[in-house]
Amino acid sequence: MATDRAADLVREPDEPQRATFIELLFDVVFAFALTRVSQQLLDSIDAGRRIEWLPVAETLVLSLAVWNVWVFTCWITSRFNRLSATIHVTISALILGSLLMAVGLPGAFDDRGLLFAGAYVGSQLGRPLIIILALGNHPRRRNQVRILCWAVGSGVFWIVGALLPAPFRLLLWTVGIGIDFLGVLLGWPVPGLGREHNAWWRFAGEHLAERYQQFFILALGESILFTGLTYGDGQLTFGRTLAFLFALGSTLLLWHIYFYQAGKALPDAMGRADHPGRLGRSSNFTQYALVAAVLVTAVANELAINDPFGDPRLAFVAVTLGGPAVFLAARLRFEWEVFGQRSLALVIGPVLLCALIPVMLHPPKLVASIVAAGVLASVAAVELVRRKRAGRAEPAPPF
User: Fold this and answer.
1) Residues 6 or more apart in contact with residue 2 via CB below 8 angstroms
2) pLDDT in tens, 296-323
3) Is 10 helix (H, G, I), strand (E, B) or coil?
4) What is the distance between the terminal CA atoms of the chain, rounded to a whole angstrom?
5) CA atoms within 13 A on the CB side of 177
6) Where are the domains of the chain?
7) What is the distance between the alpha carbons of residues 397 and 60, in angstroms, rounded to a whole number?
8) CA distance 69 to 123
9) Is 145 exposed, middle or buried (0-12, 13-18, 19+ CB in 10 A)?
10) What are phi and psi of 106, to 5 degrees?
11) Burial group, residue 53, by CB count within 10 angstroms (0-12, 13-18, 19+)
């Protein structure tokens, strides 16, 4: 029986690449989770002259945990047969765990720490455990055992941290999330089991690329929802309307810059990579940075819409210009991952945005939003002209 389950679980090369309906349902939960992350970040930004770094650090750790659950599940569905009963059970359990994480997220550093940490650890332990039981003695079982061992190690810090006050909780949870990401980088080495050489990971490249694209679209959708609700809940004044239009324009520009050439070519790049596992690992960090930048930009848009002609402070200017700067820097790395080259416009854009931060501390908030949108539009235009002259680039991943 275990042999039959293992044979059913192993993905065949000719299996369909498109995401299944249960994977899309899984993403719906993360739409809710992204909204909670955005709200957490919004609450973390001080309206005064200072940036409250402790709440921002807390939001960063929580967002990394949310991303980790999603991307680990994405890797599982790209390495195993997504139509098998085992994967359906796994994703169904993860839907519950992810929903509990989203519910516990706003109070994760208050009275809901144990709920958030328990749901996160349960998701990280349950996923490999279910697959281990289904694989039996199949060779792929070893890597899931390694992942489970590392999840147990990080889980100790998450659970113990949930029982301690907020400052100590942040410290232990930072160690916990650090262990999770270090495991990915090192291949989860375990005494007696060795480590997984992720250069040889076998991904369904088209499926993995599509999942990254879908999550990015999910983040953009959350940004549009955030922007629309903020604008609709207040008076439709000229200033708020102008801020809303520039917010929507910035979101569309983020979409265009992501998908133009590199975003569309990612599935092909996955297929051409000599070591798709290395490209998948590298893309993990790049895609997180891109999604995080979208969420930061959404928060900046809400702040501008709420008070377009208000006196800007460092916190507001930092997220308004910093969000697009991080996005362009991550998009620069994305360009390298797909084409093995870097664009000058994607280098200049982040530098220019950061240089403008001191200048934007004096004009009204709306001006900073307009400048951020202007830089994004300029980068998009330069990239469009460059690609038109050079012709369609062929993917050439450096992995």
Assistant:
1) 134, 135, 136, 137
2) 999 999 999 999 998 888 888 999 999 9
3) strand
4) 39
5) 20
6) 2-196, 205-390
7) 29
8) 7
9) middle
10) -60, -30
11) exposed
